[in-house]
Amino acid sequence: MESLSIGVVGAGIYGNYHLRTFLCDPQVSNVAVCELNEKRRLEAQERYGIKGYASVREMIEAEDLDAITIATSDPYHFEPARDAIEAGISYLLIEKPLATTVEECETLMRLAEDKGVRIALDFHKRWDPAYNCMRDEMIRGGDTVLRGYMSLDDIIAVPESWFTWSAQSSPSWFLGVHCYDLIRYMTGAEAVKVYAQGSKRVLQSRGIDTWDTLTATLTMSDGAAWTVDTSWVLPNTFPKSNDGQLVILTDRCYLKNESYRGVKNYTDKKEDLPNYLFMNFEKDKASGFGLEPMQEFVSDILHGRAFRSTAFDGLQATRIAAAVHASAESGHVIEL
Residue 270: what pLDDT? Predict the structure, then answer.
């Protein structure tokens, strides 16, 4: 196999990132799109000059596809992934989360094993050069992690106006799974206990029934304690659409990273902090660690390599997110 034919499911924000990335990749010979929303489907067809379909099964029947990537909204990953597996697609790349219940994750993994399907997950923070620098330092030093802190926050426009499905998600599902996966990736440890608290005030007052914030304390299998803060109610005047930090204390060193990347832009309207390392599109070229999971997915298939992030990683992140919600609702510590 010298190149791949890929179908992208979803033509929203991230679906367009997938489409643009694959269309720039010389290792991809054909790209098709599946989008239930007719307006978005027609826009993608016209913009990229590709064929569009209203269902996964229709796309699979019409196209000779090697792989499918799923970039639908958080709550809607299970059905297209199941349909692709059952139709015999050999490779899947699924945006986080794998699914929003443990049961759905386990079902997809069982179906994939039965059909010999390989699943990759797009936890793109595993590709962030800053986090890999920190991870490499801990590996070199043989460090024991004592404690960690991670936060991810979005501006309120994200749940209020970017999405129509915010009430079916939360800061934990949309942001927290990145944190839970990154902690596992950085340390090699699994969560064994979860305690969480949160607030439901701001978004409920605006007619969106979901959490504003969720704070989770994770006890890890290596004995470390982690605090993970997530929210999506930052003021829209914040100079980025998101913010975050990662702080780790080990027996040997203190590591700290913030989302500010050292560049500030000022206009007469707003200060801006561009994340120039994340995603960049030029003519016939895509770069940045936010797009590398898609590019590496193609390369790994063609060269027979293992995926950096797998369905098991998706399952473990979903286990933690589900426990965060169960703890926040009940007030109890959840053991995993």
Answer: 82
